[in-house]
Amino acid sequence: MGFGLLILGVLAWTGAHFFQRLLPAPRAAMGDKGKGVVALAIVAGIVLMVIGFRAAPDIYVWSPPTYMVHINNLLILVAIFMMSPAPKKGVLLNKMRHPMLTGFMAWAVAHLLVNGDLAGIILFGGLLLWALIQVRLINNAEPEWSPAEPGAIAKDAMFLVASLVIMAVIGYIHGWLGVWPFPS
What are phi and psi of 114, to 5 degrees? Predict the structure, then answer.
């Protein structure tokens, strides 16, 4: 049951995010109500992924070395920074077209490095695949792109500090849920 819910959750997340790109006419016909439907599908996908991941049996495919935790944590920090407003308000990521999706990919890869179980591979591998396809769909639909005017390096510094704080909070919540992400 766990794997079924997990896969259903990944598919709900993916389908909701692909809806506008793959079926623009039906999505446009839904108007503003479509936003609520898509948001509901995304939330349902997240809930199904969490329940399915926690209910899935432990089937280990590989055993990650302990040093991967350090690489994971660095990638998570990079991912949080990339998903912050820094790309629009700072200088460092200003010329990157898909910083949020790239940050999401870094998050998924980080989790693949430390999760050698089948449920982790399905969850994080599925979400990584979604993000890669999403970038391709966006680039095909909108081939012309140019970055906005860069912001200030001070904004990058501010968002880096905020990313460290957010990572600490996420780490605490992660530990509270059962897996402590920081090595002792």
Answer: -115, 0
- State the Cα–Cα distance between residues 79 and 106, nearest whole angstrom: 6
| CA 117/CA 113 separation, integer angstroms | 11
| Residue 117 dihedral angles phi and psi, to the nearest 5° | -95, 155
Please tell me the distance from the alpha carbon of residue 17 to that of residue 174, in angstroms, as a whole number: 25
Rg of the chain over CA atoms, in angstroms?
Answer: 18
What is the spatial distance between Cα 136 and Cα 181, in angstroms, rounded to a whole number?
32
Ranges of residues in the chain with a pLDDT under 70 are: none
Would you state the structure tokens that stand for residue 81, as one six-digit string?
A: 């920074």
| C-alpha dist (Å) from residue 147 to 12, 47, 93, 154 | 31, 35, 10, 19
Spans of all domains in the chain = 1-57, 58-184
Q: What is the pTM of this model?
A: 0.92
